[in-house]
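Researcher: Good morning. I'm working through a list of sequences from a screen, and I'd like to move beyond sequence-only analysis. For each chain I'm collecting a predicted structure so we can compare shapes side by side. This is the next one on the list. No need for commentary yet; just the structure.
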Amino acid sequence: MERKSQISAEFMIVIAILLIIFLSLFIVISKKNSQADSLRKALYAREIADKISASINSAFISGDGTSITEEISGSFKDGTPYTISIYPSVKIVEITYTSQLDTRHYSSTITTSSILGDITQINSTITISNSNGVIYIEK
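Model: Good morning. Structure tokens for this chain:
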């Protein structure tokens, strides 16, 4: 009888140790998954902000009469919503999004500060046009 209770106690200890190991692995994997998700969103933000920045720069460099239409979905490929704002005074395009309950930003530079139009809270298709060296942003 004593032998059975010893085996039961040892079995419980082994189960407890295995449970601790699996729980530790779960925590590490969950943390890595969260970091990967943050990085993925940052890369989406970079891609979109750089694309808009490149379009503004192209319209400016190409000269008078240039017009470029950019499709902006308002959400990343994973469904996370974002908005774009253009700050001509500091020559940046900024994308704002939420990741892990924090508001995050990514900025991309532009070559001109001569930008007019609806330049904040952009989350729909825009037309970027150059008229006499001034860039116009229209939704």
